[in-house]
Write a structure and sequence with these properties.
Strand order of the largest sheet of chain A: 1-2
Order of helices and strands of chain B: HEHEHEHEEHEHEHEHEHHEHHHEEEE
Strand content of chain A: under 5%
Largest sheet of chain A: 2 strands, antiparallel
Largest sheet of chain B: 7 strands, mixed
Structural class of chain B: alpha/beta
Order of helices and strands of chain A: HHHHEEHHHHHHH
Shape of chain B: elongated
Structural class of chain A: mainly alpha
Oligomer: heterodimer
Chain lengths: ~290, ~400
């Protein structure tokens, strides 16, 4: 039963799933790299974005891939406002307090979604959802190929923002030395909010890519975020290429793990990697040394 | 001063966030847990997991139970008690056994005559045990674990079928369907979720299917939630079994069926036992292509009962799905109302005695005559369904069937 085509199919499948993990991890790693907090609200925001993409299609008939153009800026604004108006003022610069605030936000957002939309699982049925491309050895669903491509574009854009724009330089400066950045005239509050906004926009894009083949309920986002934490550690905190490659690696590990050891044990491999990286190379594959 | 204010506002924010979170998680937002009305009435505790992981099923159950209460009250209440109205005391089990037990305590304090509901086996087990301490009758709405009615609790009743009966009927009917078609199916793959329900069923199938002439090629467990079924489907594709038997909850069931369609995997049949989505109108409406021809052995209403169809129409007119949680709770409340008429009393002991001797006809469910032995209704039975013509039809037993089985499914 272990023929080469099946093995290749499993790897392809892992790469496709991994690309979505990577996108969720991109948002997380940005926020971690700059604000030095683990954003516990990331999963809840992903659930909220999934609902937004769902209703955009259900109520307004907007295709999820077009909804990206509206939802990504909208969630950027939401993230910016959350950091600027809620997390920042509430935490008063204390990183531990920020962590608690995001945890509180996660609980609030998730329960607000539960109250508003109930725990009912919803899906959308796009005309092309079941279209698949025949790669001879396997069929690959068109929506998954699209998301694979989009993730690379998003990663490239993020990388360009980080390396080529003033905002990107400011973000990196704040990440490296907050006090120094502040002394050289960078508005740290603004940069924090920009970073949180970018991270939240990544989540909105991930939601639009997921909804054609996945489902939404108030806790749907959580499943991705635990894995995204692992990817952030593997790829290096705050590293864009790290999150991308880490995501793909984790996707393939999960897929092959599931294939050889059963779905129940498939995720064990991910967390073994997590522990191994922390032991051997705590700064991750692409992380700058401390 | 400004600093003081800022700190105060942060504290206030944190405190209100914590209160909000606590309120949301304890379900107080979802509805007051105790509702009371005025005048001579009989209090019935309606216990459902309306928040937490099982909240969709719990909310469906609550809709069914309260519809029955409204209908009884609108028709003049309990006649043997001088037209006493039923006063529902709503409780949220929060999808945990402990939550269910806590609500039973509250309901007991509110002096209910009976508790109805629970939904999940684990909640039913704990809540009925708690009710037994107060000799408070407990009617299980869905919970299928056999142990619910084998503990010797005098207060616990289940109108619907238990797991053992359902699994045996499912196996007999599978063999029957295969035999009638000339035994085209010989090999089987089982895909099951790895908790008590799925693993228990997989074990039972592994023990019994070979004796019925089926060869089990592989049994694949997976956790809940599972986000991706591509690997599982690859394995199915590689071994090409005649039958695929999924035993999992709604989300995973739907993902599996969708992935099979995506990967062009078409076995001779998909046959499930208490399948998470197989007999769900929601699944059929949302993914008609993936749901086509899927068979299931599950709780189901009697499609030949005018009363069941009338209720279906009322529910669908309200924009709700006619799920088994809904009509099983409706029926459970009707069973208790019938027992109240016979007991002519809201007294717990008299109501328990009336339930023990109940001959309630049910009408909505396709059951045999009602006879409770150790709290289990002996007439309860599941139905085999199949998704045909974008609808769910009953195919077995013959006396309740409204369609003929299509097997093997057309290519």
């Amino acid at each position: 039963m272990l023929s080469a085509p099946i093995l290749v199919s499993a790897i392809v499948n892992g790469l496709l799933t991994g690309s979505i993990y990577a996108l969720v991890a991109l948002g997380l790693t940005l926020i971690y790299g700059v604000l030095h907090i683990i954003n516990f609200a990331h999963g809840a925001l992903l659930s909220a974005a999934l609902f937004a993409a769902f209703f955009a299609y259900q109520k307004a008939g907007i295709d999820p891939y077009l909804a990206v153009l509206v939802l990504a800026p909208a969630f950027f604004g939401l993230g910016y406002a959350l950091q600027r108006l809620v997390i920042g003022p509430a935490a008063r610069g204390e990183e531990r307090a920020m962590l608690l605030v995001t945890l509180g936000m996660a609980v609030l957002i998730e329960n607000a979604l539960l109250y508003a939309f109930r725990a009912d699982t919803r899906t959308i049925d796009l005309p092309y959802a079941f279209k698949s491309v025949d790669l001879v050895f396997t069929f690959v669903a068109v929506p998954r190929l699209i998301s694979f491509a989009v993730v690379f574009v998003v990663a490239l854009v993020l990388w360009l923002i980080m390396t080529r724009t003033d905002t990107g330089k400011a973000i990196r400066a704040v990440a490296k030395e907050r006090l120094g950045a502040e002394l050289s005239g960078i508005n740290v509050t603004h940069i924090y909010a920009m970073t949180f906004g970018l991270g939240t926009a990544c989540v909105a894009i991930a939601a639009c890519l997921l909804i054609p083949t996945y489902y939404v309920n108030p806790s749907a986002g959580n499943a991705f975020v635990l894995i995204a934490f692992t990817i952030v550690v593997l790829g290096g905190m705050g590293s864009v290429p790290g999150a991308l490659i880490g995501g793909l690696v984790i996707g393939v590990v999960e897929s092959l793990g599931g294939f050889f050891f059963g779905e129940s044990l498939g995720q064990a491999g991910i967390f073994l990697i997590f522990i191994a990286v922390l032991l051997v190379r705590p700064r991750g594959l692409f992380g700058a040394s401390a | 001063m400004a600093k003081f204010h800022a700190r105060l506002s942060r504290r206030r924010f944190l405190a209100s966030a914590a209160i909000g979170a606590a309120a949301a998680s304890s379900g107080t937002i979802a509805g007051p847990s105790l509702l009371r009305a005025q005048g001579a009435s009989v209090k019935l505790g309606l216990l459902h997991p309306v928040t937490g992981a099982l909240s969709y099923s719990g909310q469906q159950g609550r809709i069914g139970a309260t519809m029955a209460v409204d209908e009884i009250n609108a028709a003049g209440g309990i006649k043997a008690l001088g037209g006493a109205k039923i006063d529902p005391v709503l409780g949220d089990a929060q999808s945990t056994p402990a939550g269910g037990t806590a609500e039973v305590e509250k309901m007991n304090a509110a002096e209910v005559s009976c508790v109805i509901g629970g939904y999940a086996s684990s909640i039913c087990l704990a809540a009925s045990q708690a009710a037994a301490r107060y000799e408070l009758p407990y009617v299980v709405d869905v919970g299928v674990a056999d142990s619910i009615v084998t503990r010797g609790l005098k207060n616990t009743f289940r109108f619907g079928p238990g797991f053992g009966v359902i699994a045996n009927t499912a196996l007999e009917n599978l063999t029957l369907i295969n035999d009638q078609a000339g035994k085209p199916a010989k090999t089987v793959m089982i895909v099951h979720e790895d908790s008590l329900f799925g693993s228990g069923l997989a074990k039972l199938l592994n023990a019994q299917l070979p004796a019925k002439g089926f060869q089990i090629l592989e049994t694949i467990p997976h956790p809940t939630p599972t986000r991706d079924f591509n690997n599982v489907v690859l394995k199915i594709k590689a071994q090409a079994p005649d039958l695929v038997i999924p035993a999992n909850y709604y989300n995973e069931y739907v993902l599996l069926a969708r992935t099979m369609l995506e990967q062009h995997v078409r076995p001779k049949a998909i046959y499930s036992v208490l399948g998470g989505a197989a007999s769900s109108y929601k699944f059929v409406r949302e993914f008609p292509e993936a749901a086509k021809y899927i068979m299931d052995c599950n709780h189901w209403f009697n499609p030949k009962s005018a009363k069941a169809l009338e209720l279906k129409k009322t529910v669908e007119d309200k924009g709700q799905f006619y799920t088994y949680e809904l009509y099983m709770n409706y029926t459970a409340v009707m069973l208790v109302a019938d027992a109240l008429e016979h007991a002519a009393s809201a007294d717990r002991a008299k109501l328990t005695a009336a339930l023990e001797n109940s001959t309630f006809s049910g009408r909505i469910m396709p059951y045999g005559p009602t006879k409770f032995v150790n709290g289990q209704n002996q007439g309860a039975a599941p139905v085999n369904t199949q998704v045909l013509d974008n609808d769910i039809k009953a195919i077995l037993p013959p006396e309740f069937a409204n369609a003929k089985v299509v097997f093997p499914m057309p290519a």
